[in-house]
Recover the amino acids of this structure.
């Protein structure tokens, strides 16, 4: 099933992305996504506000991840941006706002309607707990191979 294939593109895979913290990440990635026509100017502010209220860090094995996202009103074209930061970025843990996780991967979800969101999140969680796939992703330096790996493991 290729329901989510159209959400991934090599253009939105960022390997060894430089950022000091989640706020610098939000600023840089929002600017890139705005320039590429995926989000509205309101995206960054909405992303930060949502992350403050509803943290998205996940304590998964073998690597912690975060899945920041915001309301569909801020999205122009649906996407999933895949970011491997140069070094882990601290996020508050989902459902436990006082606990922190050091996210090694960030999957920024830009969905413009709710349909399929629950299934997508379920498939992503399954991927995050797939040790073999995640270990391949952490080492991969070719964006095309990252996309292939994701499509194999999510669709």
């Amino acid at each position: 099933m290729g329901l989510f294939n159209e959400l991934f593109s090599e253009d939105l895979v960022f390997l060894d992305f430089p950022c000091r913290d989640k706020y610098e990440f939000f600023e840089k990635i929002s600017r890139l996504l705005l320039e590429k026509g995926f989000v509205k100017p309101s995206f960054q502010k909405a992303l930060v506000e949502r992350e403050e209220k509803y943290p998205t860090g996940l304590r998964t094995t073998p690597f912690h991840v975060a899945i920041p996202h915001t309301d569909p009103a801020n999205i122009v074209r649906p996407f999933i941006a895949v970011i491997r930061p140069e070094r882990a970025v601290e996020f508050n843990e989902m459902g436990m706002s006082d606990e922190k996780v050091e996210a090694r991967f960030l999957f920024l979800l830009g969905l413009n309607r709710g349909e399929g969101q629950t299934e997508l999140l379920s498939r992503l969680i399954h991927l995050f707990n797939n040790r073999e796939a995640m270990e391949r992703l952490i080492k991969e330096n070719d964006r095309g191979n990252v996309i292939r790996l994701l499509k194999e493991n999510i669709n």
The two ends are 5 Å apart (CA to CA). The mean pLDDT is 91. Residues 5-154 form a domain with the Mannitol-specific EII; Chain A fold (CATH 3.40.930.10). Residues 22-35 form the longest helix (14 residues).
